[in-house]
Design goal:
mainly alpha, 15 helices, AEC family transporter, plasmid
């Protein structure tokens, strides 16, 4: 009950307050969602990823975390094509459905949630949290993988509906986030602490703006969205995103023989809701933004229940 209330009050409620601010602004003023989405993709996302990766102590021993995340992602890429055979989706809607299932919120929900879980009983020993650093490092790796996929295949999935593959790939290569990731890993090899340079706080300020601006942008998009609560495709997306994805992760964890902190983090984080980035990408390419925005909203609401169960199951099956 404590975890459930924490998720609801400290993760879900604050997120929806910021989304609500964007919704009210969108109703009151004429705001350009595409301009805001460009700020996210070209300024805030690369700054956030660069500073976060540079500060993280990442070990190559954690390659299994990336491996499981990648395999779950591949499974989620296949699922929409199977569904489309039954539901009769056209090409552009398959792209929107794919992003709504594949791209999940590993940042503004994943990070604080992992911090809470591994800072509370039974992970506190003599007043210390010995598992928290490893858990957060696993979380950063998952978030990095998601960022790469969002800024590559996420754009290709959405863009192929309106442009050819070559044009979509060229646009992906113009996204600074993938270069920010490479630069962060490269500069970690330099024997000098870049956090000491005068302009480092500038990157921190821009990175810190990511979550509020992304959520406000989503709120503005939702203010322009025509909701269809009876749309079964929204709930199909939610089902595969919130339930089937962590089940696939669980199977892979057993096959690979993972346990402890890594296994728990994978189960918890891979059960996250559809990412705000999925909605921003849909807006950027005009690829069913109403549908994707609804999957973000409904999956974020429902995850207060599903992620609570994921945490409980992870603790029972993979005790540390």
């Amino acid at each position: 009950m404590e975890i459930f209330l924490f998720i609801l009050l400290h993760n879900i409620l604050p997120i929806f307050v910021v989304i609500l601010v964007g919704y009210v602004l969108g109703k009151k003023f004429t705001l350009d969602v595409k301009t805001l989405s460009k700020l996210n993709f070209y300024v805030f996302v690369p700054s956030f990823i660069f500073t976060d990766l540079y500060k993280s102590n990442i070990s190559f021993k954690l390659i299994d975390v990336i491996f499981v995340t990648a395999l779950v992602f591949i499974c989620n890429l296949i699922i929409p094509f199977i569904i489309s055979k039954v539901r009769g989706y056209n090409r552009d809607f398959v792209g929107a459905m794919t992003n709504s299932i594949c791209l999940f919120n590993s940042g503004n929900i994943g990070i604080p949630l992992i911090t809470l879980v591994f800072s509370s009983a039974p992970f506190v020993i003599d007043g210390k949290t010995p598992y928290l650093t490893l858990a957060l490092t696993c979380q950063i790796l998952i978030m990095t993988f998601q960022t790469i996929m969002s800024n590559t295949l996420g754009f290709i999935n959405a863009g192929r509906a309106t442009v050819d593959l070559k044009t979509a790939i060229i646009k992906v290569l113009k996204m600074p986030a993938i270069y920010a990731i490479a630069l962060a890993f490269l500069l970690k090899l330099v024997p000098y602490n870049l956090e000491m340079i005068p302009i480092w706080p500038s990157f921190i300020y821009m990175g810190d703006a990511l979550i509020p601006v992304a959520l406000i942008t989503l709120g503005i998009q939702l203010s322009k969205t025509k909701f269809k609560l009876s749309n079964p495709d929204v709930y199909i997306s939610n089902f595969f995103r919130l339930i089937i994805s962590p089940c696939i992760a669980l199977i892979l964890i057993y096959i690979l023989g993972l346990n402890g902190v890594m296994a728990e983090v994978l189960i918890i984080v891979l059960s996250g809701p559809t990412a705000v980035n999925a909605a921003l990408i849909a807006v950027e390419y005009d690829n069913h933004p109403n549908f994707v925005s609804q999957t973000v909203l409904t999956s974020t609401l429902l995850c207060s229940i599903t992620m609570t169960f994921a945490i409980c199951i992870a603790r029972i099956l993979f005790p540390v």
